Structure formats: structure tokens, C-alpha cells
UniProtKB/TrEMBL annotation:
It comes from Streptomyces ochraceiscleroticus. Pfam families: Na_Ca_ex. PANTHER family: SODIUM-POTASSIUM/PROTON ANTIPORTER CHAA (PTHR37958), SODIUM-POTASSIUM_PROTON ANTIPORTER CHAA (PTHR37958:SF1). The chain crosses the membrane at residues 12-29, 35-54, 66-87, 102-123, 135-155, 167-185, 219-240, 246-268, 289-312, 318-340, 347-365. This is Calcium:proton antiporter.
Amino acid sequence: MLRTVRAVAGHWTAALPVLAVVLLALSWGRSLPGPAVALVACFLAGAVLAAVHHAEVVAHRVGEPFGSLVLAVAVTIIEVALILTLMTDGGDKSASLARDTVFAAVMITCNGIVGLCLLVGALRRRVAVFNPEGTGAAFATVATLAGLSLVLPTFTTSKPGPEFAPAQLIFAALAAVVLYGLFVATQTVRHRDYFLPVTSSGRVIDEDDHADPPTRRTALTSLGLLALALVGVVGLAKAVSPTIEAGVAAAGLPSSVVGVVIALLVLLPETIAAVRAATRDRVQTSLNLGLGSAMASIGLTIPAVAAASIWLSGPLVLGLGATHMVLLALTVVVGTLTVIPGRATPLQGGVHLALLAAYLVLAVSP
């Protein structure tokens, strides 16, 4: 018995997805008391960590830059599922949930993950080195997608309020899909070397020297457990979402904080993975993870909510307010200046983290 317990403890990433789905089956459709909600929240966090772990295993098998793409898409699927789950039950009060969550993801990735990894990489080697061609292409795509999806709705006049008219929403969704698909083709086929880690002298590192790749069987097992973990995350999030919304309302915080909580929940494990890459002098891999997640967040969420708006009642608010547009503009300007040289000092990392801190303060106290 003790040996079995140790085996489960030593392979928690395999056990948690299964346990999360079992708990989901037991709690589905029921009103949960406080202790049960706490238990569900613990398994939800564990399922997110397990999902990212298995995504990393698959990523290690396929190599860079495919690995960063797998992890970013897996995390974004979690985010999209959480958004749609909450929007289905939220009514009019969730009209801006997609906007709030996507913008939170952009700020956390472009300023939090990027800033933290640049800071870690620069403190280790005095200067963090990355490929400006690949990073610049990724950042330009993120800025374009954010502008088309989150800024334009504030200024369009076909429909009152910061909303798209149906034709405009279709265009934004198609543009997001096309640009994201074009970037993936660029990253994995046409210019794969632009997204590989580089040494301080600029030499491309095309090998992964920190561990042997997992076997095909291990990768396929992780792929199955990843799918199981995603099912558990989506279902358990639906179970705890009323408690999250009630807690935000009871604390007197703006409803947009719910979007921040969702983004922090799904991006925390990926932040850990990006920082680990930075500590191994793989700053480019860290930037691939951060910017790839921002891009996937917009490129997958906007088309998903556009399709969901067909059956969802209530408005779909996508346009940012003036304060958030200022923060987005600062992020684009600072990010551009950071990317151009292909090298960053701790100062650049600190500037990005300051922008994230400003966003979090204004989210709580607008």
C-alpha cells in the first residue's frame, strides 16, 4: 500500500488529470458548499499544472520552436474554454469578459513574462540575448491583433458602444485566424531559425542539450493526459466560477478583475516554464512562450467568442477604455524598443514589469 502511495505521489501529473475528471463527474450540476469549492479549486490548480507539464513533455519531443507553439496553444485552449464557460452562465454582466481576459493575457505575457525573463536572463549573463527577427515578427503580430480586435471597436460607429457590428466582428475573427496561421507557418516552416535560441555571440542553438527527448510512447501518453487535464480544467472551472464572481463582487472590485483572475490562473504555469528557460540561457524560448501565448490568446479567443455570439444572448463588448489603450500603446512602444537591438539589460525587464504593475493597480482601483 505504501509503495502504491509513493508511486502515485511520484507521478502526480499522471494521477491529477484522472482525479480531476472523477471529481468533475461527482460535482457536475450541483451547488457546492464552501469546503467543496476549496477542494475543487485545489484540483483545478493541480490540473492546470499537470496540463502544462504534459504539454512540455510533448513540446520536448517535437523540439523548438514547435514546443513553444504546443504549450501556447494548450494554455490558450484552457483560457478560451474558461471564457466561454463563464459567458454561457453570466448573461449581460459577462459581456466584456472576453475583452478583459484577452487584454489581461496580453499585458501579463508582453510585460510580465517578457519582463521577468529578460530580467532573469540579463542578471545571469549581464545582457539577455535573443533573435530580433523572430521576436520582432511575433511582437508585431501581437500588436496588430490587439489593435484590430481591442482598439478598433471603441471607434467604430456602425453599432453604439465599444462593439463590432456583425460584419466587423466577422472580419476581426477572420483576420485573427489568418494572421495567427501565417505566423505559425513562419515560425515552424519558412523561418524556423528566427525562433531558435542564440548564444551571446549570435550563433543559433539548434539542439536541446538539457535532457534527452522523451520516447514516442511517453509523448503519446502525455498527449492523452493533456486532453484529459483540459477536460478537467474546463469542467472544474465551471463549478467554481460562481464563487469567483461572488468573491469579486463582495470585495467591491470591478467585474474586470474576473478576467484578470482567469488570465493569471492559466498563465502562471507557463510563466514558470518561461522563467526556467531563461535560467538556462534560452531567452528566445521564453519570448516564444510569452508572445506566442499573447498571440494565441487573441487569435483563438476572438474567433471563438465571435462564433459563440451566434447563440449567446447579450452584447459582446470588445473595445478598450482610454486607460487601457494608453497602457497598450506604452506596451507597444516599449516592446518595440526592447526588441530592435536583440539584446536587453535588466533595465528593459524592469520597465516591462513596471507596466504590468501599473495595469494590476488600475485593474483593482480604476
